[in-house]
Each structure stands twice: as C-alpha cells, then as structure tokens.
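Q: Fold this one first, please.
A: Sequence and structure below.
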Amino acid sequence: MKTNPSVLREIVQPAVIVGALGYFVDVYDLILFTILRIPSLKSLGFSGETLMNHGILLLNLQMIGMLIGGIFFGILGDRVGRVALLFGSILLYSVANIANGFVHSIEGYAVWRFIAGFGLAGELGGGITLVTEVLPKALRGYGTTLISTVGVFGAVIGGLVAQRVEWRTAYFIGGGLGLVLLVLRLSVAESGMFKQLRAGPGRVSRGNFLMLFNNAGRFMKYLRCILIGLPTWLVIGVLVAFSPEISKALNIQGEVKVAQAIDFCYVGITFGGFSSGFFSQLLQSRRKILFCFLLLTTAAITAYFSTSGQSNGTFYLAILLLGFGVGYWTVFATIAAEQFGTNIRATVATTVPNFVRGATVPLTIAFKQLTLGCGILASAAAISFACVLIALWALRGLEETHDKELDYLEPV
C-alpha cells in the first residue's frame, strides 16, 4: 500500500471516519447487554436459572429487532440514501439506549432491547455500503479495514465502562455517544453512485428486497453471503456470552466473568479485523482470507474446548484466539456488499450482517435444547463445528470481488 499523504487523505475522509466511529458506538451498544446481562437482571430482582432464561429471551429480542431493522434500513438506504440510513439508525438506537437505563421491569427491558436492536441494524451495512462506493476499488478494502479496527474496539471500551459504572449509567453513556455522532454525521456526503442511480430512469427498481428471492442464482449468492458469517455470532452469542456457564463445565480454575471474556474476545477481533482486511488487500483476494480465517476459527474452537481443568487465564487466552479467528467480520460484510448491484447494495449490506446476528436466535435455542440431552459442552461444541463447516461450504460458491467494478445495476 502507498503511504504518501494524498493516498492517506483519500482513505481517511469523512465517510470512513464517521463510519468507523459509528461502528464503534454500534458495537459498544450491541455488546453492552451481553456484558450487563447478569448485573442488570439481578438489579431487577432475578436470580438463579432465570438469569440465563431471561438473558436468552432479551438477547433474542434484540437480535430479532436487528433482523427486522436490517430489512427496513436496507430498503431505506437504497430508496432514500445511504446517509439517511445512517442518520435514522443512530438516532433510534441512541434513544433506545437511554431508555434502557430507565427500565424497571423485564417487559420494559424487552421492549427497549428490541427497539435498540432495530436501530442498530443499519449502522454497519450503511457504513460499508457508503465506503465501498466512495473509495476507489484499489483502496476500499483499507477503508473497511479502518472501520473494522476502530469499530470493534467499542466492545473493549464497553467492557471497561461496564466494570466501572452502574449498569444504567453504561446505557446512558452509549446513548450519549450516539447523539454526539449524530452531529458529526452532518459532514458526510452522499455516495456519487447512489446520486447517479437516483437521478437515472425512474423505472430502475431500488431497494426491492424481493429481488433477492425472485432469481435462484441471486438467492443462492445471498444465502451464501449470510452463511459465511455464522461462526462470528456463534462465538459471540454462545461461546463468549455463556462463558461463565461453559467454564464451570470445563472445570476452569478461577472465576470467568462475561465482561472480561468480552474484552479478550474483542481485542482478538480488533487484531483479526485489521489482519484480515490488510492481508485481503495485500493478497488482492477476499476469498483466500475468509478461508484462512475460517480455518483459524476451527483451530481456536478446538483450543477453547481443550482447556478443561486449566486456569481462567488460559481460558481467556482461548477466547482471545476465538476473537482473532472471527475477526473476518468486516471482510465478510464487504464481500457481501461487493456481490450485488448499486440498486440493492445497501439492502444486501445491511440485511446480511443482521441475518447473521439474527441467527443467534436459532443458535441459542438449539444450544439450550441440546444441553437438555447431551450437556452444555457437547451442545456448544456440536453447534460450533457445524457452523464452521456450513461457512466453508458457503464460501466455495462466492466469486472473488477484490477488483470488481461496483457501478452497475441488478436486473429485475
């Protein structure tokens, strides 16, 4: 990569900076409930088995909100604009975060986690879409890498904040950060590709979600884009979120806390995100890097379940490796955006990550049901390796998009 000032200026522009900060706030909020699950539910009067049961319910409602919100904001991004998508998304989840700090019942908690998830749904996909369309093809991978590296660090900060302030205050901070970012968004210009699309013939179908299902080849490509991301939220939503329960089953010596597990995981994701993005540019291939990182994830899962009887430090190290392995998240989101035309690109880039996040619902349900018959360790391991195998299969059918020209339309 060239490092002269003109190239750096081309990469570090408002769309990239604000996209990175937006993803930072997105990840901070998205992971905050996982960190605050136990202390917040205890504060509301719950204990014992209800901590896990209500935790799964609230996590699933958040993810369902993201699933529905992904469709809504994706269509909004292709019909009204990428910038409008980002404004609406951050305003909604900022308000929801602040409201989360005022809840006093499980019902209120559930409503606001759903709304927060709905709002969060547009952030990553909107940012990735805008950056891939604003930067030249030779540099767009560096732009999305910057978004990933800065963004996922939001979880680390979230973990540090959650350990130092009361749980309600942590939610207020997240909402406040979002409102500050809303002001910074005023400096972001609309994508030139989208402006041309909007000024073009009115008969062009924009943001038509059903277009992803009316053509078999296009549908399979869309499905494969979703499936390659499954291991990421399997790691975050099961192996890390329920690490206290899994560590007990592994006879880990010393207490394992969710907040610390999240910190270790996201430090790994930060370095994995930078590495996957940098090497995808160096090798000029998204597919090769995704394949390598799926293999790294497989090795990390094996190490995670091989820590039986070890110290909590060793267990946290395994979680760090898991995070590095699934650090391909932004390369995965980028390759999804690059697979489709400008008229449905925001719809794809926004819905794909949220369908993956939404997959946390069936994954946690399957995890819970399997534990009844085969125990927590066998259940977690079976789901983990199954997700990696599915992702590897999905990757085989996707085209390479590193040098792909993106200024084209999908036919109806």
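Q: Good. Now the second chain.
A: Here it is, same layout.
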Amino acid sequence: MSRVVVQAFLTLDGVAQGPGGPEEDLDGGFEHAGWQADYDAEFGSAENDDIVAEWETRTEALLLGRRTYEIFAGSWGVWDEDQGGLDGELTRRYNRVPKYVASRTLTELTWQNSHLLGDDVPAAVRKLRAEPGGEIRVWGSTRLIRTLAEHDLVDEYRLVVYPIVLGSGKKLFSDGFPLSRFTLGETRALASGVVITTYRRPVED
C-alpha cells in the first residue's frame, strides 16, 4: 500500500500561497509571493534543504493540482538535471517519477511521465494508494488537499512552519476544512526559527 504525504511550507497564520518565488501564485492580488525564499535567503536554508532532500528520497510519485503541476512543469520539468545540489537532485527525481494531476481543464500534459486523474479524483487516488509503493507526494495544491481530506485519503502531513505572519493568502486548512485527526510524529526546531512537524494517520487497532 502506498501513502499520500502532504508537504507544505506555511506561515504562522497558516498561509501556504506562493512561498517559492515572486510570480508563483498571485491569485486574489496576493502581495507576498516568495515569502519563504526571502526568509531563507536572509536566515539560511541549508538545514531545511537537508531535511527536504532526505524526505524526497522516499518520493515514488507526485500528486498535484493543475496550478502546482504547471509551476513544477515549468521549473523542475525544464531545469538542467546535471546542476549540482538539491535542485539537480530533485530535478532528476521529479522527471523520473510518475506525476498524477487533478484538473478539469487540462487535456494534455507535456511533462514526461505525467497522467491526468480523470473526473473522479478521489476514486483514482484511492486506487493509487491501494497499490504497492512508497510515498505519493503532494506539494502545494490546497484545493486538491481539501478534496483528499474530505475522502480520508491523507496519510501524513509534513508542515514546515516559518515564523512569519502575512495576514492574507490561501491557507492550507481553510474555513470548512473537514474534521481530521492525526497523531504527532516528530517535531524539530531549526536554527533559522523554522519548526518542522509531522502528523500521521492514527494506527488502527
């Protein structure tokens, strides 16, 4: 059985929108895109990078919403695999693993090893989750994550929380998010002030 693992960079007020770059996600007039990258540039990200690199060695597939897929396809999907460091490592891995995309509008996917999930996303994910394998990684994709939670399809949350309050932006756990219960896995405070916490599905008796 595979496991659906959500990884997210969050602010103290729960904002998950546009952490990586100034043009990443400007929906709703969002004015703080790139907040995570700016923080890492100021306070250091080496420790965080090491943790993410270790996590991503377990990634056997990506599960993405349309917008996140397009961002990833336009970055990891075209970047040089021979570059050094974490970027090269993730580019090689993301190019090779299957990508499963939830979208009502896309009809064709150009990034290698990419597949549309079809009209019944919960059923498709349930089938993927039932197959042998490792971690099915979800990045970004807040609407998709909510759909997964509504159908009890999230096995683990890995939350990287930055000591920043933005006051606006899309939240991972927005109003009306379905009731979900998880147990604490690990928590770790980094020298930069970032706190990483893992929550897992309770073990069934």
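Q: Anything worth noting on the second one?
A: The radius of gyration is 16 Å.
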